[in-house]
Amino acid sequence: MKLKDLREQCALSETELMFYKDKGLFDETLCSDSELTDDSIEILSAVSLFREAGLGKEQIAEFCICNDVKRKIQILRKARDKLLNEMHCAGQLLDKVDFILYNLQHKNK
Predict the structure, then answer these.
(1) In this structure, is the dihedral angle defined by the CA atoms of residues 38, 43, 48 and 49, taken in order, positive or negative?
(2) Each residue's pLDDT expressed in tens, for the chain with a length of 109 residues
(3) Which domain of life is it from (predicted)?
């Protein structure tokens, strides 16, 4: 797979790619026309997932570079807690909207 194809698939800008390259996630030969190694594909896929999960660029770079499993777990747990809180807040909002809908439906009867 070519870098430009995976970059488009992961919605990763050239600026972000250069940021991660500067942080040492990829070797210096990485360019738009290069054929990606399995390691590079795995890293870009992880970057895409972590971005979707709400991690910042610095956190993603730290996770990918870090060799300390406990630190990696700490980073992911923090992201998980944030996602769980967002889900909880969305659930509460859904309950409020459902309550208003219920009241509106029963006023029209």
Answers:
(1) positive
(2) 666 777 777 777 878 877 888 888 876 566 556 677 777 788 888 888 998 899 999 999 999 888 999 999 999 999 999 999 999 999 999 999 999 999 999 987 6
(3) Bacteria
Question: Hey, what are 21's tokens?
Answer: 């390259």
- C-alpha of 99 from chain center: 33
User: In the chain, what are the domain boundaries?
Assistant: 1-65, 67-109
The terminus-to-terminus CA distance of the chain in angstroms comes to 60
Structure tokens at 40: 């590079």
Give the number of other Cβ atoms within 10 Å of residue 25's Cβ.
20
